């Protein structure tokens, strides 16, 4: 639409371990959001957004997948990826995308593959079967990394990059009644280093997806598990070092970044070593 053009880079999200994320109770995420103002002198409070579970007829659940928490279930997340990343419609999202107001089908004489929903379900099951990224245990055990771990907590990084979350009990029914948490995913303590909530940290792209205008410059806290395997950071991949990514934080995170700037060089080195162990 004229006057509302928004262009933004988006990094693809790691889906390893997302079965555990799907199995987190809504109330657990709400409790994390509620606890953050007290931990940050009122500066930080993650936003909880309710989003429709497509396979449950639009029943609402707390969003947790996508840079804007567009989805709450892995089936919904997968159907979105099929349509918007591969151009494959499904019963959950049966309408072709448009370009300049016209259906993409109008420009494509080759029949697109259609999915009857089985592939999306299978893809969601596959994601649920993946393990969460492991740590570099040898580096994590060093004195340097352990000191950095303490600094991570002391300056407030862990307010949003939450260290440990417990998933819902096995047998809990979630996703609008469409999924029962399995023993493999239920009652598990995970270490994602994320709160899976939306925050304004000064790098927002102005795009509104699910959640309304209050979310336009907010992004989901990216999990830090598997961080050591990446060489581009933040939602747009425009940061190429841990230090650069940290210093790009502002907004709600400014109080934390101010504390980071005050660290001695040796303390910054310890913190970065800890991050390299994740």
Describe this structure in words.
There is one protein chain. This protein has 278 residues and is of the alpha+beta class. It has one domain. The protein is 31% helix and 9% strand. It is built from 9 helices and 10 strands. Strands 1-2 form a two-stranded antiparallel sheet. The protein has a two-stranded antiparallel ribbon with strand order 3-4. A hairpin with a 2-residue loop joins β3 (98-99) and β4 (102-103). α3 packs across α4 (118-128). The radius of gyration is 20 Å and the shape is globular. The model has no long low-confidence stretch (mean pLDDT 93).
In short:
This protein is of the alpha+beta class and 278 residues long. The protein has helices at 18-22, 26-39, 74-86, 118-128, 137-140, 143-154, 242-248, 254-261, 265-276, and strands at 50-53, 59-62, 98-99, 102-103, 165-166, 173-174, 179-180, 189-190, 198-199, 219-220. The strands form five sheets. Strands 1-2 form a two-stranded antiparallel sheet. Strands 3-4 form a two-stranded antiparallel sheet. Strands 5-8 form a two-stranded antiparallel ribbon.
Percentage of residues assigned to helices: 25-40%
Beta-strand residue fraction: 5-15%
Could you state the order of secondary-structure elements as H and E? HHEEHEEHHHEEEEEEHHH
According to DSSP, the number of beta strands is 10
Radius of gyration from the CA trace? 20 Å
**Which regions have little confidence, pLDDT < 50, spanning 5+ residues?**
none
The main sheet orders its strands as 1-2
Calculate the terminal CA-CA distance, rounded to whole Å.
42 Å
């Amino acid at each position: 639409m004229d006057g509302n053009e928004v262009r933004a880079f988006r990094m693809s999200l790691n889906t390893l371990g997302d079965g555990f994320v799907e199995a987190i109770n809504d109330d657990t995420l709400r409790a994390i959001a509620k606890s953050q103002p007290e931990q940050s002198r009122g500066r930080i409070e993650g936003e909880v957004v309710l989003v429709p579970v497509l396979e449950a007829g639009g029943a609402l659940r707390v969003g947790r997948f996508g840079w804007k928490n567009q989805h709450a279930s892995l089936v919904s997340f997968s159907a979105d990826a099929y349509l918007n990343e591969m151009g494959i419609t499904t019963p959950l999202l049966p309408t072709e995308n448009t370009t300049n107001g016209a259906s993409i089908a109008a420009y494509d004489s080759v029949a697109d593959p259609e999915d009857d929903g089985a592939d999306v379900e299978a893809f969601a099951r596959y994601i649920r079967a993946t393990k969460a990224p492991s740590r570099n245990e040898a580096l994590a055990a060093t004195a340097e990394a352990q000191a950095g771990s303490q600094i991570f907590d002391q300056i407030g990084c862990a307010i949003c990059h939450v260290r440990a979350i417990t998933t819902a009990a096995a047998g809990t029914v979630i996703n609008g009644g469409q999924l029962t948490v399995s023993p493999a995913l239920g009652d598990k303590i995970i270490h994602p280093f994320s709160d899976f909530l939306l925050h304004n940290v000064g790098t927002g792209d102005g795009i509104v997806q699910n959640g309304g205008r209050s979310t336009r410059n907010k992004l989901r806290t990216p999990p830090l598990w598997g961080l050591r395997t990446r060489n581009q950071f933040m939602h747009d991949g425009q940061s190429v070092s841990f230090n650069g990514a940290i210093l790009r934080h502002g907004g709600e995170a400014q109080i934390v970044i101010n504390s980071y700037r005050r660290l001695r060089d040796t303390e910054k080195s310890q913190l970065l070593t800890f991050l390299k162990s994740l």
